[in-house]
Amino acid sequence: MRSTITAFLVSAAVLFLLAAPPPAEAQQAGKVARVGVLLFSAPEADPNAAAFRQGLSDLGYVEGANLTTLYRFAEGKPERLPALASELVALKPDVILALGGDVAPFARTATNVIPIVMAASQDPVQAGLVASLSKPGGNITGVTFVSSELAAKRLQILKQAAPGISRVAVLWNPDHIDPEYRETQAAGKVLGIHVQSLEVRSAGDFDPALQAAAAERAEAIVVVSSRLTTINRQRVLEFAARQRIAVVAGWGPWVESGALMSYGPDLNVMVRRTASYVDQILKGANPARMPVEQPTKLDLFINVKTATALGLTISPSLLLQATRVVE
Predict the structure, then answer these.
(1) What span, in angstroms and rounded, lies between the C-alpha atoms of 173 and 179?
(2) CA–CA distances in Å: residue 224 to residues 169, 221, 280
(3) Mind listing the pLDDT tens digit for each residue in 73-121?
(4) pLDDT for residue 3 is more than 60
């Protein structure tokens, strides 16, 4: 009888040990991740915020279960960002997402301890956010939408679409630090295209800049992506349509709104990648040793309706290269 009871107890103990998760796993399963999110606009208004939430969801994070998201957002008022970044840091989240290259510096100024994951359309090295792309070296890492030779490739594709083009204006914000205007200039010299600089630092700069393009008989406007140019997208496209000027941009939504073409990364894909960075940091990864990711997949969007309005016939070979053709 005693041997039977002993055998039963041993069997029960073995089954308990097999069924129970290891202590570390059990602790991880019960932990609620606290993720701070610093935004320029607002959670409902920012499509990139939705992409980040989807990325976390794909990785198994559920708001109210194993995730608490702490939002601070400027509602389009950049002067509020320093105080909002400090507020977010005071809440002591496990990690902070800074959504935008113009947002990340405020998070970085507010803390050099809490890990920060950024999604930036500018060059984070030139902006002083990281020491290098391969070895960030501090408490910030993430993704950048900037990739070498992107600007030159856009000009080459424009030349394919319109072989006779010789005058191109570049609409860019000098305060948004990236190499695209410089690279477009260099590509223009190789392709025999005169490149005109249209500098915009505020919404009030757009009308005179666009008028300068028309005065110089620009045949196309290449838009360097930044929050400022994106916010003013519609006025740029409406002006270009009236003046019959082609618009080339870095992101697909421009083409969907009427630009001739775009060449660059899928923003939703890139922002979803930030969720992976957050996940790795929550699991113990050191941001100083996590390389900043650049785009590896680039999309070409072409709007054939706009091409027709401009009197252009896009070659079948170029259309075959397109990720999407908008008709």
Answers:
(1) 11
(2) 11, 10, 31
(3) 999 999 999 999 999 999 999 999 999 999 999 999 999 999 999 999 8
(4) no
In the predicted model, what is the mean pLDDT of the chain? 91
Cα 132–chain centre separation: 18
Question: CA–CA separation, 5 vs 2, rounded Å?
Answer: 5
Q: CA dist 295 to 90, 162, 268, 298, Å?
A: 33, 27, 12, 7
Contact 117, 288 (CB under 8 A): no
Please tell me the class of the 150-264+298-326 domain.
Answer: alpha beta
Closest by CA position to 52, among listed 108, 101, 97, 102 = 97
User: What SS3 state is found at 167?
Assistant: strand
Q: Where are the domains of the chain?
A: 32-146+268-289, 150-264+298-326
Whether the domain at 32-146+268-289 and the domain at 150-264+298-326 fall into the same CATH topology: yes
Contact (Cβ atoms closer than 8 angstroms) between residue 95 and residue 69: no
Report strand pairing: 67-73 vs 167-172. Answer: unpaired
Fold of 32-146+268-289: Rossmann fold (3.40.50)
